[in-house]
Write a structure and sequence with these properties.
56% of the residues lie in helices and 10% in strands. It is an alpha+beta fold. Strands 7, 10, 12, 14 and 15 form a five-stranded antiparallel β-sheet that branches. Strand 14 and strand 15 form a beta hairpin.
């Protein structure tokens, strides 16, 4: 008992004991960070007070660029942008100045008493507590409706985790896990525990990989987000070139992925597999980078789980309505994350073991990252560029640094220029076209200048805490250099901090909580490094001092809490069990997508050019292996006046290409947006309706000229079958062998074909081509839309077609329907289909004959004067 009490006494004595150097450093650090924050607040207040607010003028100019339908999303932020830019530029300078000022002898002579130290410590933690309270309690002004909790992710997250039983479990296990974080796992169990940890991580990454796989039917998220990423891939795979045939919206990643997709049968599933693999590789590289710089395996494991949780897993696991907000969103994962993960791992390797070849390689990779995706790539390039300049400050005078600056800038510029030249040569070799680099930043410049989809930065938000993490990281980096420390970890801290600030600009421009979550991962890397440094053997003597122990306990609690929130296997298993079988079996329940694919496949061959107007155009182009004939970024990105006007002019002047439009657009003219009323006007003036499946329509220009006309000329017309109710003619239907799914107790019409040469018919597909007609049912007039489709193909739910012999005495296809009828006809033959008042309005049929090894003839069939038929 005496030993136990003595140990407690020693613990508390150590807890409240701090050596002089530690107290002085913390005092100067507090003054430095406080002065920087106050100066930044004052600068931003002055900017807010005197900087001219020309929002209305900017909005007026932006509206000239953006189509009126999307003016709602124009949110000019001239003052905020200038504040952010000024703060980011001044922050390093303020940090250096503050370190210099508070390192003067005047401040070093100040003797910091225990009383001042503890007051200083209490004020710092109180400041953090106030920021934490404001971040998790004050509603985001960007979303003024408090009932829409799915948009208040920060607040919703706090409510969700604190009201869950896992929060209680985390608190119970927190002391034990923190004990192992501080003391390490027992040596005899270390191997076993590591195996468990790696199995857990592998399972999480596997689930992440499987959750991201989808077919064309069960994408998790908004299809317009998927389409924006998928559409350029579908075009590049068909031989088009970005920067020549169409603009780059999210970057040139489709050309990077082109060789991969050429090795496989590219479709939506293989696309999702590739994206899932790249996302998993990105997270794996971050984990390997953490392993390189952190010795404590438990800290590495917990930090990586926190990164996975906040950036990905949480959106799957949170209850409704939060999970309704989830989107796989490939525009960020992996497009904006793949190269940053590579750069993080590579730069960690370089800092730990610098060499010239690796320096050149990282510069080349960061140059490639700009081409892959400009938003994230320019952050990768500038972060490494700035880091090298920072590194050259060590032990250098002004002249030496100037020489290194010029040399490094020259090398970086040359490698970037050579990378662009190499890509240009590759594009020219593949497509025989020279890229127009003015198109590379066309959309980013338009959207940026129009302040498109911007959202103001909330005054109080979790970003305040993240900013402090980055501010402290940059401070540590400069402090290490200015005091001549040769600490590789401090240099890594500096790189991650400036990298994290750059990555955060994605959130600073559009300050939605979900964007903050996506950009958090550098801050967790820094927290892991801070925790690891405190646990380092060299700092062991200071670990149990109150400041250091409080920081260890605080960071550990964050990591432990996210660990227990991640352990929800039932939810993940339930999601996977519902999705994976549908993907394996290619099960499709989205009728719009499946009908669109069917209609295009019926009317186009692989490698054909067809226009598709739908939010699913990328999916349908990819699945049908077709490409768009017009220079367009995709249906969902016709948001600028230039893109929209170009598309309308292309439709108006089109003579060679079929146009497919989804039913939601065609029927209402309002979905996806009101601009499609203009399209329907173009269709009315320049096109005729030629085919349909479900709610999809195919229009053909009135001056259409087939690119590859058929060698067989065909004509046809239809009339009533047995118009005089001839007994012999009716027996043709009633007395012969039945045809699968062919109605007998009805009236029929007969279509007579005249061909220029004999053929062997493989299949017949008939569509009724009319917008609507009125019929009477149960003494009521009912409007019928697009009355029906018949086919000899084995398609469930469609009526069959009866083929008559020359004497009209029997049907030819009497058994189950087939893809290969093998019916030989001379220049004339006839078919029967059920009548549905077609003769009353004399509608036009469209019949597709597949013959002689999958050749096709499309015949428009009008009605003819009724004559006597025997």
């Amino acid at each position: 008992m005496y030993i136990f009490l003595n140990a407690i006494k020693i613990f508390f004595l150590n807890l409240f004991e701090t050596d002089k150097d530690e107290k002085n450093f913390f005092f100067r650090l507090s003054l430095s960070l406080l002065s920087i924050i106050i100066i930044l607040i004052l600068i931003n207040f002055v900017i807010y007070s005197i900087y001219p607010n020309n929002s209305e003028a900017l909005r007026f100019e932006a509206e000239k660029l953006i189509h009126p339908l999307y003016h709602l999303w124009i949110e000019p932020e001239p003052i905020e942008r200038f504040q952010i830019l000024t703060s980011l530029i001044l922050m390093p300078l303020l940090i250096v100045c503050s370190i210099k000022i508070f390192s003067l002898k005047l401040f070093s002579r100040i003797s910091i008493s225990n009383h001042i130290y503890f007051v200083n410590l209490a004020l710092c933690f109180s400041f953090l507590g106030i920021l934490f309270y404001l971040a998790f309690k004050i509603n985001n002004p960007n979303f003024i409706n408090p009932e829409i909790t799915s948009t208040q992710l920060i607040r919703s997250y706090f409510i969700t985790i604190t009201s869950d039983i896992r929060f209680v479990v985390a608190i119970v296990f927190y002391p034990l896990i923190t004990y192992f974080i501080i003391n390490g796992t027992p040596e005899k169990y270390k191997k076993f525990i590591n195996i468990i940890l790696y199995l857990f991580l592998s399972t999480i990454l596997l689930c992440l990989f499987l959750l991201s796989i989808f077919n064309s039917d069960n994408y998790l998220g908004a299809y317009n987000h998927l389409n924006a990423v998928l559409y350029p891939i579908s075009q590049v795979q068909q031989g088009k070139s970005l920067l020549f045939d169409l603009s780059a919206v999210y970057g040139l990643y489709p050309h990077f992925l082109y060789p991969i997709f050429k090795l496989m049968n590219v479709n939506v599933i293989s696309f999702s597999l590739t994206m899932s693999a790249l996302t998993t590789i990105s997270y794996s590289l971050i984990f390997l980078g953490l392993r390189k710089i952190i010795n404590n395996s438990l800290v590495t494991f917990l930090a990586f789980i926190a990164i996975l949780y906040f950036s990905y897993i949480a959106f799957f696991l949170w209850p409704y309505p939060i999970n309704g907000n989830f989107d796989i969103y490939h525009a960020y994962k992996p497009i904006r994350m793949f190269f940053p993960a590579i750069i993080l791992y590579s730069v960690f390797s370089y800092i730990l073991a610098p060499n010239r070849n690796l320096y050149l390689l990282i510069t080349f990779i960061s140059s490639l990252s700009i081409l892959w995706n400009f938003d994230s790539g320019v952050i990768c390039f500038l972060s490494f560029y700035i880091y090298i300049l920072y590194e050259r400050l060590i032990g250098n005078n002004v002249r030496g640094f100037t020489q290194d600056f010029i040399k490094h800038t020259f090398i970086s510029s040359v490698i970037l220029a050579l990378t662009i030249l190499l890509f240009s040569c590759f594009t020219y070799f593949v497509s025989n076209s020279i890229p127009d680099w003015s198109l590379f930043l066309q959309y980013p410049i338009i959207f940026s200048s129009a302040h498109y989809f911007s959202l103001p930065l909330p005054l109080f938000n979790a970003w305040n805490l993240i900013f402090l993490v980055y501010l402290y990281g940059i401070y540590i980096g400069f402090h290490s250099i200015l005091f001549g420390k040769k600490d590789a970890i401090d240099r890594i801290v500096f790189f991650v901090a400036i990298f994290g600030v750059g990555i955060s600009t994605y959130y600073l421009n559009r300050s939605h909580d979900s964007n903050l979550f996506a950009t958090l991962y550098p801050s967790f890397i820094l927290l892991a490094i801070f925790l690891s440094k405190l646990l380092n053997k060299n700092n062991r003597a200071h670990l149990f001092q109150i400041k250091n122990l409080s920081i260890v306990m605080m960071i550990s609690f964050i990591f432990v809490l996210t660990l227990f929130q991640t352990i929800q296997p039932n939810k993940i298993i339930n999601i996977l069990s519902k999705r994976i079988p549908d993907i394996i079996n290619s099960k499709l329940s989205n009728q719009i997508i499946s009908d669109g694919i069917s209609l295009v496949n019926f009317n186009a061959q692989p490698n054909d050019q067809v226009a598709i107007i739908s939010e699913y155009d990328g999916i349908i182009h990819l699945e049908t292996k077709t490409s768009a004939p017009f220079s367009s970024p995709g249906t969902d990105l016709h948001q600028t006046h230039v893109a929209w006007d170009t598309f309308k002019n292309s439709l108006t002047n089109n003579r060679l290409h079929k146009v497919f439009i989804s039913g939601d657009v065609y029927k209402s003219g309002k979905t996806p947006d009101l601009r499609y009323v203009e399209i329907m006007k173009i269709f009315g003036e320049h096109y005729y309706l030629d085919d349909w499946v479900g709610d999809w329509r195919m229009f053909i220009s009135k001056k259409y000229k087939p690119v590859t006309p058929s060698n067989i000329n065909a004509s046809a017309s239809y009339s009533k079958f047995c118009p005089n109710n001839s007994l012999g003619c009716n027996n043709t239907v009633k007395n012969f062998n039945s045809i699968e799914n062919f109605p007998k107790n009805t009236k029929f019409i007969k279509i007579d074909f005249n061909l220029s040469a004999p053929i062997t018919v493989q299949s017949i597909m008939l569509h009724v081509i009319m917008n609507k007609h009125i019929i009477m049912e149960n003494y009521k007039f009912i409007e019928k839309q697009y009355a029906g489709t018949s086919t000899t193909l084995p398609i469930q739910g469609l009526d069959n077609i009866g083929i008559l012999n020359n004497e009209y005495k029997k049907f030819v296809n009497t058994d189950e329907r087939s893809n290969q009828l093998g019916y030989k006809v001379n220049q004339k033959f006839s078919i029967l289909v059920p009548e549905n008042n077609y003769m009353d309005i004399c509608t036009v049929f469209k019949v597709e004959l597949t013959y002689n090894n999958n050749n096709k003839i499309n015949v428009r069939v009008p009605c003819k004067t009724i004559g006597k038929q025997e």
